[in-house]
């Protein structure tokens, strides 16, 4: 009896897990996502049988989905690196990463004369909010402010 309950639960879990992945396959490419876990393998092809080319170790890092094949996504990162990852290792959220040279100012309003809240280094990852007038809301571990859109990768049309 317990085995049947366990099997039923496992089937329900798989059905739920698969449905969220399947619905994401209906999206038009390209689109944005973020890395779900603290470690994600990128492969040279759309299958676990292909060799691992790179291992990401940045939960929340934004990626651009450029192709969909079954449960796999061809992604491109801020450096232009491309490879295949399993779809469930991504979340359909907007994220950003600071790019460019030097520190980027995080301000209290979407303007260069806004009060300086923090200075962020290239490579800092955060949640991306609304964008307006060349500025985007950016949340880094609860520290929120506005960053110039040109300093963020993950902003704009994919």
Identify the notable features of this structure and list them briefly.
158 residues, SH3 type barrels, alpha+beta, 2 domains, elongated, five-stranded antiparallel sheet
Mean pLDDT: 88
Report how far the terminal alpha carbons are from each other. 50 Å
CATH domain fold name of the largest domain = SH3 type barrels
Tally of distinct domains: 2
Strand residue percentage:
35-45%
Order of helices and strands: HEEEEEEEEEEEEEE
What is the 3D shape?
elongated
What is the CATH architecture descriptor of the largest domain? Roll
Number of helices: 1
Structural class: alpha+beta
Q: Assign the CATH class of the largest domain.
A: Mainly Beta
What is the name of the CATH superfamily of the largest domain? SH3 Domains
State the helical fraction.
10-25%
Q: What's the number of extended β-strand segments?
A: 14
Largest sheet entry: 5 strands, antiparallel
pLDDT < 50 runs, ≥5 residues: 3-24
Strand order of the largest sheet: 6-5-4-1-7
Radius of gyration: 18 Å
Protein described:
- With 158 residues, this protein is of the alpha+beta class.
- It folds into two domains: 2-93, SH3 type barrels; 96-153, SH3 type barrels (Roll), CATH 2.30.30.40.
- Helices cover 15% and strands 44% of the residues.
- The chain contains one helix and 14 strands; from the N terminus they run H-E-E-E-E-E-E-E-E-E-E-E-E-E-E.
- The protein has one helix spanning 2-25, and strands at 31-35, 40-43, 52-56, 62-69, 72-76, 82-86, 90-91, 95-98, 104-107, 116-120, 125-132, 135-140, 143-148, 152-153.
- The strands form four sheets. Strands 6-5-4-1-7 form a five-stranded antiparallel β-sheet, with no helix packed on it. Strands 13-12-11-8-14 form a five-stranded antiparallel β-sheet, with no helix packed on it.
- The chain is elongated, with a radius of gyration of 18 Å.
- The chain starts with a helix and ends in a 5-residue tail after the last strand.
- The relative contact order is 0.15.
- The model is unreliable at 3-24 (pLDDT under 50).
């Amino acid at each position: 009896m317990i085995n049947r309950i366990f099997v039923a639960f496992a089937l329900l879990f798989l059905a739920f897990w698969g449905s969220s992945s399947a619905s994401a396959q209906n999206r038009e490419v390209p689109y944005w996502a973020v890395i779900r876990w603290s470690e994600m393998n990128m492969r040279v092809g759309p299958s676990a049988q292909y060799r691992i080319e790179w291992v990401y170790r940045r939960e929340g890092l934004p990626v651009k989905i450029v192709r969909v094949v079954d449960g796999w996504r061809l992604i491109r990162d801020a450096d232009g690196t491309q490879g295949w990852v399993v779809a469930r290792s991504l979340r359909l959220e907007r994220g950003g990463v600071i790019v460019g040279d030097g520190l980027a100012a995080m301000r209290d309003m979407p303007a260069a004369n806004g009060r300086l809240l923090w200075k962020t280094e290239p490579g800092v990852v955060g949640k991306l909010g609304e964008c307006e007038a060349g500025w985007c809301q950016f949340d880094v571990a609860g520290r929120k402010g506005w960053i110039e859109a040109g300093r963020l990768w993950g902003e704009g049309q994919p």
